[in-house]
Amino acid sequence: MKFFNSYFFLILAIFSFLKPSGFDIYNMHLINSTINFIRFFFAILIFIKYLGTFHKLSVFLSLQLFFFFLLLISTLINNSKIENFSIFSISVIVFTMLVEIYANRKFRLLIEALFFNYFVILSVNLLLMYYLHGFKSEESLIEEKAISFISSDNLTASYLFPALCVSFLYSVLHKNKYNYYSMILYAVVLLTAIKIWSATSLVGIVLILAYIFIFYGTPIEKTIKYAYLIIFAVFLIIGLTFFNIQNYFYFLIVDILEKDITMTGRTNIWQIGINGFNESPIIGMGYGAMIIDNGLIQLLFSGGVLGLCIYVMMFLTGTKKIFSPEHNHNSLNRFFSFVLFTTLIMSISESWFYFFGFFVILNLANNLDKLSHYLLWLQRRKNEKKIRLY
């Protein structure tokens, strides 16, 4: 399949997986159906190519299949949204295959195609938001439609955070931290977050941008204990979710910051999710039964204890390379460690573990070692050319 080496093929394939929800929200049925058909067509081609490239499934992909198989059983038993589940699960699995195919030999092509898609989608989306709504906030809109063309305000983060990661990798490939096109995409991501004004997303984006421009490539970066950050995030998630530790900071949250101690009513929704989990603690209530606005409870609610265990194994498999002692000196791994820390914190108030964008980040993290080898190869090749000149 020579067309797999085509830049156009890869751009179109990736776009079919990143299709903006606006085509559906604004009733563009013909375009929406066409892109869905293209996605199905590419899914078949990618599946065939994967089986022809690899003799066996990767551990990461195998755990994904186990997780979604369990979720399928739970969804069927509880009569949940099987159509939505099918679209989401197949998209994630096939996208993982796509990344592993190109990460094996064509990592640069993969990053450039991802960058092109995020650059175009988010830039067009930003222009549309300001063209249709001007400088109005979401609350001031008369029509109850998404201010963002690509998705709802919270789900737009599923595009913004992977875009930051891809933009960063794009600049690394071009050996320029301040790469012109990367800087533009950073600005588009930040302006989009400001426009939709999702506080959770905005804080996360500012933290990641601050890391890139202040800490990345500096001696301070090497002093940060990234594994400890992840452990802290996990304990914070558990503490806020099950032990309501935010009540100990009532004075700070309510009296000083003037925020709601229930996180805008989210803790009430969490309790509904916990009640649902209690009804089916082993395999959960299935995909799409309810949005809980908490990553941990969403996993328990949808997939039960079994689903949570398999998902944790999948997460650890996808990230073990960036946390292993032999790779913790790598700046790429440190950056992705910080991104994962940020998204874990965000999962306290959003169902981040079911965002397609989170799987994009996990796939990139799982294959960072291949990018590192590619960069080392480029450096050796450059040094060899210098030697020949002398």
Automatic annotation (TrEMBL):
The annotated topology with respect to the bilayer is:
Multi-pass membrane protein
Every copy of the O-antigen ligase-related domain together lies at 198-309
What's the protein here called? O-antigen ligase
Q: Transmembrane stretches, by residue range?
A: 33-52, 59-79, 85-103, 115-135, 155-173, 185-214, 226-245, 295-316, 336-362
Name the Pfam families for this protein.
Wzy_C
Q: Which keywords, in A-to-Z order, does the entry hold? A: Ligase, Membrane, Transmembrane, Transmembrane helix
Any GO molecular function: ligase activity
Asked whether the keyword DNA damage is assigned, the reply is no
What InterPro entries does this protein map onto? O-antigen_ligase-rel_domated
Protein location: Membrane
